[in-house]
């Protein structure tokens, strides 16, 4: 992914898991700028949200990678889905809260993509009739 410095970067989040408790704390964060050819560990940044599996969707818009993430919470449904972001140029993480109707949707039922210049979150949830989906466009 090109940045303002015309360098491509790989970003790696390494979650440590176990069978009983799932994630063991926040992930290790590493960035690999292609021009330097060396992995560097990001210190002082703590991601509180759980990352979705590798096969789940992500998209790149205006220099920022976006993906679906979730928190385990006690809000009546047990989870809170949201969109995480990472600015390649600034190396800064962010989050975008989803509309109330998507907050309790399992992250496995959500997909993120680009439509024209906007982020789109699609809900393929089981509560929908099986032949349709909900599409939320963020400007």
Description:
The protein has 139 residues and is mainly beta. The chain has one domain (9-138). 3% of the residues lie in helices and 47% in strands. The chain contains 1 helix and 13 strands, in the order ββββββββββαβββ. Strands 6, 7, 8, 9 and 10 form a 5-stranded antiparallel beta sheet that branches. A 3-stranded antiparallel beta sheet has the order 1-4-5, with no helix packed on it. A hairpin with a 2-residue loop joins strand 7 (58-61) and strand 8 (64-72). The radius of gyration is 16 Å and the shape is globular. The mean pLDDT is 81.
Features:
single chain; 139 residues; mainly beta; 5-stranded antiparallel β-sheet; 3-stranded antiparallel β-sheet; 47% strand; F-box-assoc_interact_dom
């Amino acid at each position: 992914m090109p940045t303002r410095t015309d360098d491509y970067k790989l970003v790696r989040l390494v979650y440590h898991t176990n069978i009983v408790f799932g994630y063991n704390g926040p992930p290790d964060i590493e960035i690999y700028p292609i021009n330097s050819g060396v992995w560097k560990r990001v210190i002082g940044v703590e991601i509180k949200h759980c990352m979705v599996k590798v096969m789940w969707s992500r998209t790149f818009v205006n220099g920022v990678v976006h993906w679906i993430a979730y928190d385990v919470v006690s809000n009546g449904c047990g989870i809170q889905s949201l969109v995480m972001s990472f600015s390649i140029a600034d190396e800064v993480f962010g989050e975008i809260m989803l509309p109330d109707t998507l907050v309790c949707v399992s992250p496995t039922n959500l997909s993120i993509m680009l439509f024209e210049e906007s982020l789109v979150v699609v809900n393929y949830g089981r509560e929908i009739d099986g032949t349709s989906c909900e599409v939320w466009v963020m400007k």
